[in-house]
Amino acid sequence: xxxKSLGAAKNVTGSCHxxxxxxxxxxxxVDFGLFQxxxxxxxxxxxxxxxxxxxxxxxxxxxxDHCGRIPFLIKNGFKGRIICTKPTYQLAKVxxxxxxxxxxxxxxxxxxxxxxxxxxxPRLLYDESDVLDSLDYFDxxxxxxxxYELKNGFTVEAYDAGHILGSCFVKIKKNGKSAIFxxxxxxxxxxxxxNFEYPDEADIIYTETTYGDRNHRSFKExxxxxxxxxxxxxxxxGNVLIxxxxxxxxxxxxxxxxxxxxxxxxxxxxxxxxxxLALNVTNIFIQxxxxxxxxxxxxxxKGDPFDFPYLSxxxxxxxxxxxxxVSERAVIIAGSGMLHGGRILHHxxxxxxxxxxxxxxxxxxxxxxxxRKIVExxxxxxxxxxxxxxxxxxxxxxxxxxxxxxxxxxxWISAVKIKPGKVCLVHGDEEVMNNYKAGLEKTGFAVYIPCxxxxxxx
Length: 458
Ligand SMILES: [Zn+2]
Ligand SMILES: [Zn+2]
Prior knowledge:
Layout: E1 2-7, E2 16-20, E3 27-30, E4 56-58, H1 64-67, H2 70-75, E5 81-83, H3 86-117, H4 128-134, E6 138-139, E7 147-149, E8 155-160, E9 168-174, E10 177-181, E11 201-202, E12 204-208, H5 219-235, E13 240-243, H6 249-262, E14 270-273, H7 276-287, H8 297-302, E15 311-313, H9 317-322, E16 330-334, H10 344-351, E17 358-361, H11 370-375, E18 380-383, E19 386-389, E20 393-396, H12 406-414, E21 417-418, E22 423-426, H13 430-441, E23 447-448, E24 455-457
Parallel strand pairs: 3-4, 4-5, 5-6, 10-12, 11-21, 12-22, 13-16, 13-17, 14-15, 14-16, 17-20, 22-23
Antiparallel strand pairs: 1-2, 1-24, 2-3, 7-8, 8-9, 9-10, 18-19
Helix pairs in contact: 3-4, 3-7
């Protein structure tokens, strides 16, 4: 059996591993994500294997760095089936449609620019219609803890990865050999999704290492910090802006705000969820409450745990613009999470230069993003072509991550019995992985960091 690392190897995004049985050439691929680091973007446009030869694609979860190249795979002749859990299919559908829309908008913009300047035309990876075509290939049949037999002799076992709704880690078996792929593992303190399950045994294991270099601040402390930031801002009658990812983070935020409200801790205010994508995702959450932590289930049965009297859902652009007429005590939740684009930029324009307001960052800000610049205390920023002074108070809350931290990763890996094989580290920055490897080797594991396109036999 061979595993080839085709993404997230010595980098974080573009997750993809290809498993081939050398005896009969049968194949299973795990994830087919988009490369999101600028330096690896070029890899998105090439597939250097025969897409027609892939029998199955198994999806660990719906984040774009794990499923974001599926429409491109289908455009390149993939004829197999895509196997995942039901919520992963539902989430992948809305997230891929959103990505396809953004890609075609960017393409049109870049094309105009290129024609004007007589430059080389841009390439379009896929658009919304390619996404719609790809939906026919999905089979949302995976269930946690139940083996699923594929027609090419492989068996897939999915276990809860506790990362986002529907996420799993998978064990793939054939002829007495088995490989485990972690996908992304979750932060155990998060309020909604269940905690990860533990791996039992395998010949080889591929595990993510996103936070292999640090432990998160506790969720409880972060929640207190979050409430304090809101309360403080309201004392000066300011507004609070929360740039948020649409999946999981936006729901965690709404869930906490509803809790603060019920506990009488949230001062009277107006909360706006200004993200059609986050609204779609929230509706998928409500339909799948059986996937959540036990104590949440009665809440879901009683009603919508993301709703409370101060909340307004903003649908169209006009409504979104009207939020800026509310001059004080508004909490505005909008995307994008790293200020790449989206409705949050308009709200920033109206609020960032006033000292009574606050921006609360609740997620990771990648290098080079506007979010990172603001977090790193740049005093002057450019938003939608205009210069602004950053006078609003900036808060960064670190404990709301959807990823396992260093201790949790080690706890998860330590559960596995590796027959003679290796623990392979993927989905992390190279430096982080090197440090993490050194620590993990001390616990007795044989640890390896595969390169992009490297094949490992087991
Ligand atoms: Zn993920
Ligand atoms: Zn990931």
